[in-house]
Each structure stands twice: as structure tokens, then as C-alpha cells.
Amino acid sequence: MTKKNLLYAQSGGVTPVINATACGLIEEARQNKDQLGKVYAGKNGIIGILNEELIDTSKESKSSIAALRHTPGGGFGSCRFKLKGIDESRAQYERLIEVFKAHNIGYFFYNGGGDSADTAYKVSQIGKKMGFPVQCIGVPKTIDNDLPFTDVCPGFGSVAKYVAVSIMEASLDIESMASSSTKVFVLEVMGRHAGWIAAAGGLAQQERGDPPHIILFPELPLDEEALLKKVDKAVKTHGYCSIVVSEGVRDQEGRFLADSGVRDAFGHAQLGGVAPVIASKITNALGYKNHWAVSDYLQRSARHIASKTDVDQAYAMGKAAVDLALEGKSGVMPIVVRTSDKPYRWKVGEADLAKVANKEKMMPRSFISKDGFGITAAARRYLEPLIHGEDYPPYGRDGLPKYVRLKNILVPKKLENFDL
Ligand code: F6P
Fold first, then answer.
1. d(CA 211, CA 240)
2. Can you give the pLDDT at residue 272?
3. Which residues of the chain have pLDDT under 50?
4. What b/e sequence results for 259-297 when a residue is b if at least 16 CB atoms lie within 10 Å of its CB, and e otherwise?
5. Residues with catalytic annotation?
6. pLDDT one-digit tens code per residue, 280-303
């Protein structure tokens, strides 16, 4: 019997460690080449699969694949593209099957967040409905950390570390200038509707009173009066006020403070730009000079300060995805299962894709302090181990990290073009 090929695709916003997952998956498939065919990757995710643009990863050297482990971005390209229900988008599903058949694909791996789990689940249904058996495995990833079941989503730990380190460093800067200059610093972080990344800023506080003095979560509507009082108190007590704000913060009416008006393929509002809104509210009301920063893609790509725990978990998810396929599984996703907080211990488990799809896991209220502006001991217990350890990329003589750019050679097309 001919061996079936594997098809891997990256989806949605990338992370500092999504390529570590790709590395784990490809290395594990190469280890099992007696049972598995080649690993192909969709160029720019599922769009590449629909366009029959399949990257042949067997053309990449062992060292290039190994270097994916420490390279940020999405090595094969990613996309935001929503496959609708099978009945609505039958032509797209039929096209996927046609591509799978043409290239002898037996296993499909979709590496993404909640929307991607939904797509992977739908694709897992195709085989059954259209009479072509393909094993579909979702592979978790999202800096937002909002997937259910898994203890953590690969990508989050590294962004959490970047945010905690950045607010710690910026706060030392402002502290040294505050007596005659800037008194308020606002750092905006991603996370969409979930406050996990903002909460991670709280890890910078080692002693009571340490910065950040305020964290603003999307889970709670903004109470402007309470915020201003808290800022004033921090400035009067510490000489300055350092703030982490989540891009998804809403007003009392439930409107995002920073909705750019742009919607992506999934109908999500593009957020970003809440830091200057908060900073100017403070300066207008209290007169304090401010600085603000939007960490945006810097946080999502900061591989140089990745969490070793996160890198290890990202790699393990890729490897486990192949192992699940070898066990004959489909419609599942490997997950991280926490077995102990201190010392932090985890193992690989699995979740049913149908249950993962389209669910967002928010910060529980018990992780947010009573006044709504900080994190609790329970949050700290959860978050702390996720930023443990460093996994620096190798650096070259030029002083820059040695990141890999793959050759990304496409498999020759066999089909007619398809109109997306
Ligand atoms: O889903 C991950 C994420 O980084 C969110 O935190 C952020 O709101 C969004 O992606 C940004 O998406 P895009 O890069 O498509 O604008």
C-alpha cells in the first residue's frame, strides 16, 4: 500500500512559536517515514490548499527544519479565511477533497486558534460526507490563550513573558524620570476578548506596590472614574503610574474603546489603538504627562525572549499531532494538561475538535482582583510557570538572531485553477 502524505497548514495570527510546532510535526513525521509519506504545507494556510499551492517540506534540509524551532512568524505563511458550513461552501469543500485526492493526502493538520479548530472540525466531516477518508487533527496555537480544554495555548507563554519583561523595563525607565517628566505610561497588549495577555503584565510585580499599578481587562467594562482615582493615587504614592491595557477593553455600553472599523474574514473587529485613548483621558483629567506604546506585532513575534516552557509545549503539540494520526485518530486536537502547579508539570492530552470549535475561554473573575485593576494569587499561580525558562535563538556575528527562511518549493500542480 502506498504511504499517504501529510498536509499541514498554519492559520490565523501567527505566534513566536508556531514554527516550533511545525518543526515538531515535520521531525516526527520524518522519524516515522516507514509509515508516513511526505509532509506538504499549505502556502499561506488553507488558501494555498484551495489554490493547490502545496509546499514540499521534503526539499528542506534537516538543519532548516530544526531552525524553525527558533524562528518567529509563520514559515509557510498563514491566512485569515473562513470556510463556511459544508452546505454553504460545498464547492470549497469539494475542491479540498479534489486537492487531497490529487496529492494522496491521508492526514490534514490545521494549526490555529478557535476559528481554525472550527475549520478543522468541518474538514474532518468532509471525508465522511464525501466518501474520502482523511484524518483531521487540529493543532493548538494562539497568543490570546482562549482555547478551551488545554491548560495553555502555544504562543501565549512567550507573549506573556515579553509583556511582563517589557512593562518591568519600561517602568524602570519612567520611574527614573517621573519627578520632573513623564508620570504615566500605558502599554497596550493584544488578546482580543480575553485578558490573559494583559494579566501576564502583572507577573512583573515582585513586591507589593511594584508596577504595573493598573491592568485593564476586556472582561470588565471600564469604570473611568475609578481608573482616574487609581492613577492619581499611584502617582501620589509611587511618583508615577504604569498601566497595561488590553486592546479589547470596552466602555460601559459594551463598545470597544479601540475598534478600527475594519472586520476580518471571521467578522472580528480589528482592534488596536486603545493606549493613546486611555493615556489622553488621564492627561486631560489629571494633567500628568504620559507616554504610551502599542506592542502589537512586536509581542507576537518576539522570539528572542520566548519562554522555554512555551517553546517546549509548542514543539510537543506538533509531535503529538503526528502521533495521534499514527494512532488512527481524527477530529481531535492535542492539548497541554497541567498535572501540578509547583513544580509545574504537564503532559500531552487530547480534546474533541467538535467541542473546541468556536469557544473562547475568558479569564475567570477569580483571577482578577476585587477592584478590577489587578491579578489575584490564583492568576499568578496559573501564569507564573508559563513564562519560565529562556530559549534564546542562536545569534550570528552581525549581532542578529539567525532565523531561517525556507525555500518553500511548491509541488507541481495537477489540477485546473480554482476560483476562490
Ligand atoms: O488572534 C491573535 C491576534 O493576535 C489577536 O490578539 C489580535 O487581535 C489579532 O490576532 C490581530 O489580527 P490581525 O493580525 O489579523 O489583524
1. 9
2. 80
3. none
4. beeeeeeeeebebbbbbebbbebbeeebebebbbbbbee
5. 144
6. 999 999 999 999 999 999 999 999
Does the fold of domain 156-301+369-387 match that of domain 5-142+305-359?
yes
Rounded CA-CA distance 134/325 in Å is 10
Q: How far is the C-alpha of 124 from the C-alpha of 254, rounded, in Å?
A: 36
Residue of 270, 271, 358, 362 to test ligand 1 pocket, by largest number of atoms within 8 Å of CB: 270
Q: Which of 192, 217, 245, 358 to mutate for ligand 1's pocket (most ligand atoms within 8 Å of CB)? A: 192
Q: Give the per-residue pLDDT at 326.
A: 98
| Domain 156-301+369-387 CATH (choose: 3.40.50.460, 3.30.70.100, 3.30.1490.20, 3.90.180.10) | 3.40.50.460
Predicted local confidence at residue 1, as pLDDT: 63
Q: Rounded CA gap, 166 and 160, in Å?
A: 10
- CA gyration radius for the chain? 22
CA of 147 to the centre of ligand 1 (A): 14
CA 341 to ligand 1 centroid distance, Å: 29
Q: 34-79, pLDDT tens digit by residue?
A: 999 999 999 999 999 999 999 999 999 999 999 999 999 999 999 9
Q: Is 3.10.450.50 the CATH classification of the domain at 5-142+305-359?
A: no
Query: What cell was used for 365?
Result: 473573575
- Using a 6 Å cutoff on CB, does residue 301 contact ligand 1? no
Output the pLDDT for position 184. Answer: 98
Q: Hey, whose CA ends up nearest to atom 15 of ligand 1?
A: 13
3-state DSSP percent of the chain in helix, strand and coil, to 5: 40, 20, 40
